[in-house]
Amino acid sequence: MAIKSTDFISSMIDDWRRERPDLDAGVLEIFARVNRLSALLTKRSEQWLAPLELTWESFSLLVTLRRVGAPYELRPGELLSVSLLTSGAITNRIDRVEAQGWVERRRDPDDRRGVVVRLTPAGRKLADQAIALHFAQLRPLMAALDKPEFKTAGVLLGKLLGSLEAPPKPSEARAAPLPRKPRGALAKKPARA
Predict the structure, then answer these.
(1) Are 13 and 29 in contact (CB under 8 A)?
(2) Number of Cα atoms under 13 Å in the Cβ half of residue 67
(3) Which domains does the chain have, with CATH numbers?
(4) What is the pTM (predicted TM-score) of this model?
């Protein structure tokens, strides 16, 4: 049984299939939906995190430290690699949560020049409260999928993400060439009814 999507992306894909039938619009379906889902879910998350005085970035930083277990600390580079944060201004993000008293920087015992970032007791308490709220708020947002669909979506998205996180093979390291425009692509389009 084919499932017809009715989201904004469906009409965008239909437009591209009409305007550029020479392109495989299917790849854009995945990219555009994942991109749009990320933006919408992040925006919703920030709405329920705001009463806790958390941004998405501060939330991600705190719950990552909480998730790794005692002593709830990581080096900044490790924090970046195992969180949902992007690399931009990680130091500033740490500064902000440190100013709130939720983390503290300590000397790295294995590297005199380095630091580790550790949750404070207040940060751990807030992280526990925030992650419980986050899970509770996410559940109804996923209600459009039944249990088998939910599991399948998780597996398929994990497969795709895993392939993108893997280092590129030497043959993939070069950018793909731009597709050539088909002959007659500049021909006059038929008038719309």
Answers:
(1) yes
(2) 14
(3) 52-143 (1.10.10.10)
(4) 0.75
**Could you state, in chain order, the average pLDDT of each consecutive group of 10 residues for the chain (193 residues)?**
68 90 88 91 95 93 94 89 73 91 91 90 97 95 92 92 81 59 53 51
pLDDT at 132 (0 to 100): 96
Q: What value, to the nearest 5°, has the Cα angle with vertex 61 and ends 56 and 67?
A: 115
Q: 180: how many CB neighbours lie within 10 A of its CB?
A: 8
**142 Cβ neighbours under 8 A, 6+ residues apart:** 150
Both tokens of residue 5? 């999507």
pLDDT at 123: 97
Lay out the sheet containing 103-108: strands in order across.
73-74, 111-119, 103-108
66 contacts 131 by C-beta, under 8 angstroms: yes
Nearest in space to 68 (alpha carbons), one of 28, 136, 15, 123: 123
